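Chapter summary example: a protein plus zinc ion.
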Amino acid sequence: MTITDYHTHTFRCGHAVGTMREYVDAALQAGITDIGLSDHLWLYFAPAGDRDPRWAMAEDQFDAHYSEMLEVREEYRGRIDVRVSVEADYIAGHEDELRAILSRYDFDYVLGSVHFMDGWLIDDPDQAHRYREERVAEIYRRYFANIQRAIRLGVFDILAHFDLPKKFGFLPEEDLTAVVAETLDLAKDAGVAIEVSTGGLRKPVAEIYPAPAILREMKKRGIPIVLSSDAHAPEEVGAGYTESLALVRAARYDELVVFERRQPRKVKLG
Ligand SMILES: [Zn+2]
Ligand SMILES: [Zn+2]
């Protein structure tokens, strides 16, 4: 029986609380069998002086953070599977830097995200007014265009919060089924998994990422899934999993995928 939580953040990222060991202990308590430590990669795409410490750890902290993940993975071996991971931003124009950085570490999996578009942090509550200033559907289209480029880059094993622009409850004015389908086809061809994240339940939209209709399209294509919480505090590990498991089962998923050293392996959903 396997239950993953493949998206967690520790105090090091500047906007979460808790240490790695607190997260792993919380996972044990919550009945999670496979936990990924996936703090944000430093803001490699911004000039060193412009890297806001509220969004990610500093570059010079990352090696110590990585070593600690390796230690924690060993420490808990036999009790729970701990995965060494990172949540890395896809930023158009910075692909080579990202590829070079990721190649320096031996991650179990890399979680790919689009949080920034043209310097706008699209999931920042302080910048959410931007959704009122242009057509929401255009924002979604730009977002999915970025996700498609991220998939094509070939460095991400799992896509995080697949329909993130819905976070504040701004929904597109038109049907975007076609662009979503095109994006899912690409993910399928590239062998990229997509997380089912309860993070959205704790946000104004109050909905799991991705939406049920998208999850059904994923299942049709056989796109592998992981379960995750995007926990920013140890007590959020596995949060909302009753809803998440119900959603996943309603979409007729009976398997998850787990990652070890970038190798996916299908397992029965617990
Ligand atoms: Zn994220
Ligand atoms: Zn995250």
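Key point: Residues 47 and 267 are 42 Å apart (CA to CA).
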